[in-house]
Amino acid sequence: MAKRLAGKPVVEKIAEEIGGRVASLADKGIVCGLSLLRVGERPDDLSYERTAEKRAESLGIEVRKTVLDEGVSQAGIEAAIDEVNGDESIHGCLMFRPLPSDINEQAVCDALATEKDIDGISSAALAAVFMDRDFGFAPCTAAACMRVLDYYDVPLEGAHVVVVGRSLVIGKPIAMMLLRRNATVTLCHSRTKDLAAVMRAADIVVCATGRARMFKAECFSPDQVVLDVGINFDEAGKLCGDVDFDEVEPIVGAITPVPGGIGSVTTSVLMAHVVEAAERTTSA
Amino acid sequence: MAKRLAGKPVVEKIAEEIGGRVASLADKGIVCGLSLLRVGERPDDLSYERTAEKRAESLGIEVRKTVLDEGVSQAGIEAAIDEVNGDESIHGCLMFRPLPSDINEQAVCDALATEKDIDGISSAALAAVFMDRDFGFAPCTAAACMRVLDYYDVPLEGAHVVVVGRSLVIGKPIAMMLLRRNATVTLCHSRTKDLAAVMRAADIVVCATGRARMFKAECFSPDQVVLDVGINFDEAGKLCGDVDFDEVEPIVGAITPVPGGIGSVTTSVLMAHVVEAAERTTSA
């Protein structure tokens, strides 16, 4: 039986860290402000929004919601971003994506001030991740994976990590973050040959394809640490990861569950980034 | 005996392509302008400068040299960059690096206008490489490796490429460029465990560590394609790559020599980027 790398204690640890920092900021008269920017009424967005609101509330972070009509124009979204940029009571902004398909999403992302881009969606933030520079914020999901690895003391130096999925939300940024910690990183994707064999050879596997239970027993080997980043629904409507947990859990050394794994930590990382953004305004 | 992936035919092909494009630009009254910006008198820089000047001349590209004193200030270098940015007769700029250690090099790189940054040194250009966006220019050495692979019809889709070295000049950007072409990419470095075994398992190996002849026979296997990006001098003062060519060449399927390999193509790519930059000004 694998060790279960639950998100809960990581969430609790982050909450504890944040608690003191929010209090220190309050002493200086600063209330952390989180902007949630949503276009339309997609159920996924609404669900994440509710989670973020609750979490923020419990931590003393103030939430400002902006909801735009699904038919909003490019200029309309960029005006909302400008408002966020200009509002000193807002320290960080989470914009739900994808935006409607007629919108130039990258232009919107790049309009967000780097110091308020707490989910690493702007080119400047991603450049910093690529270049190992300490400014801006990394995408929250990638940062959440790093938090989980560190919380459970998974050695990264010299470890061989296979990352499956090459998105800018998780695959590429986490590859850079792991590389910075001296891991050897293999980036895989849908065109990788003998994917199962490549995965089996790794010390750590990060699964980030967004396909329900696509990774079965043949992709894993004993003692591996498996991070399952997927948040999918199966045919029965049940929440599940990219990994077939029931099949894989008996084989590997440690694995994050879904739900209750990386996803739960991601929201906490978002809050930590808001607090960090607020702190940076005081030291600037 | 391995197939020798010489740079010469690649250089000739690029020169041929450029020839027609320089002529078309001339028809529109545009002479391609290349700025070479150098601080101090480092022999490496002088040597690369001479090569670039000669190559530019032979292609009808005009060179403007700016030489700053080694003791130049941050403001002094940035003023030189501003001049390049503002000069319409200059389409691209190559700045020799590293800059003196008291200079904030990244700030200087980021001061260069993205459209004139033909060696991909600015954060914006590197972000574009990371994000697979088609603007700016990739670092020339990484682009030269891609040119060589394509010239010799090395299949990239699904190929497993091991890149040794994680610099922003070559390792990281070429990893992204290969990933975009659907290769599976492993990024290795000085802390990689069992490096030789990892290298032996690859279809293509890119060696970019800058250590003279550090890669011996044990790092390679039959049929591999080896790109040697190193430009080093051995104890005897002889130019050599990162790969021990004499030892490795009999084993692998194909290999780039040093000299006469990637390095020679890099200068050509720089020229191609200047021409491309000049063309972009006409379509803007």
TrEMBL record, chains A, B:
Describe the location of the Tetrahydrofolate dehydrogenase/cyclohydrolase catalytic domain by residue ranges. 5-119
Q: Quaternary form?
A: Homodimer.
Its keywords, alphabetically, are: Amino-acid biosynthesis, Histidine biosynthesis, Hydrolase, Methionine biosynthesis, Multifunctional enzyme, NADP, One-carbon metabolism, Oxidoreductase, Purine biosynthesis
Keyword presence, Cell membrane: no
Provide the E.C. number(s) assigned to this enzyme: 1.5.1.5, 3.5.4.9
Q: Which family does it belong to?
A: Belongs to the tetrahydrofolate dehydrogenase/cyclohydrolase family.
- Give the protein name, as stated in the record: Bifunctional protein FolD
The gene designation is folD
Catalytic activity as recorded in UniProt: (6R)-5,10-methylene-5,6,7,8-tetrahydrofolate + NADP(+) = (6R)-5,10-methenyltetrahydrofolate + NADPH; (6R)-5,10-methenyltetrahydrofolate + H2O = (6R)-10-formyltetrahydrofolate + H(+)
Q: InterPro entries per the record?
A: Aminoacid_DH-like_N_sf, NAD(P)-bd_dom_sf, THF_DH/CycHdrlase, THF_DH/CycHdrlase_cat_dom, THF_DH/CycHdrlase_NAD-bd_dom
Q: Name the domain of life this protein comes from.
A: Bacteria
- State where NADP(+) binds: G165, R166, S167, I231
Q: In which pathway does it act?
A: One-carbon metabolism; tetrahydrofolate interconversion
User: Which Gene3D superfamilies does the UniProt entry name for this protein?
Assistant: Leucine Dehydrogenase, chain A, domain 1 (3.40.50.10860), NAD(P)-binding Rossmann-like Domain (3.40.50.720)
Q: Which CDD domains match?
A: NAD_bind_m-THF_DH_Cyclohyd (cd01080)
- The protein's role, per its UniProt record: Catalyzes the oxidation of 5,10-methylenetetrahydrofolate to 5,10-methenyltetrahydrofolate and then the hydrolysis of 5,10-methenyltetrahydrofolate to 10-formyltetrahydrofolate.
User: Domain named Tetrahydrofolate dehydrogenase/cyclohydrolase NAD(P)-binding: which ranges?
Assistant: 139-281
